[in-house]
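Reply to dn_fold:

You asked what the input looked like. This is it:
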Amino acid sequence: MGVPFVPALVFWLHSKYQTADEATDTLVANLKWVDVVVALVVVAVGTIWFLAPGAVQAAGLMPEAAATSPYATLAAALAVGLGSLGAAYAVSATGAAAIGAIAEKPELFGRALIFVGLAEGIAIYGLIIAFIILG
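and this is what came back:
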């Protein structure tokens, strides 16, 4: 539904402006404001979620089992997020080196695959720690 909406919006904006580029620029500028509004809503909901867990629980948005500590949820999110960022950095470094090595010697594919797989394990460790934190 959203895909046909964008060309229709560009066509409608094009009727007000001289070129399609001006219409597209207007559309992109308006989408930036939408991103800002969405980000502010996410920050507001997150602030209420972590600073007033009683209000969230009273509204029925959080089950009783998860109400032990809002910081446990934050810690689990940090474990997964930072673990994934570390894995992404490690895979980018080892992946680039592996591609270079495989380009020179194709028989090194198996060894290179092992090193890239070890780097991906960092994200799995972060996920395991998150499960341990959440109990």
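The two ends are 40 Å apart (CA to CA).
Hope that clears it up.
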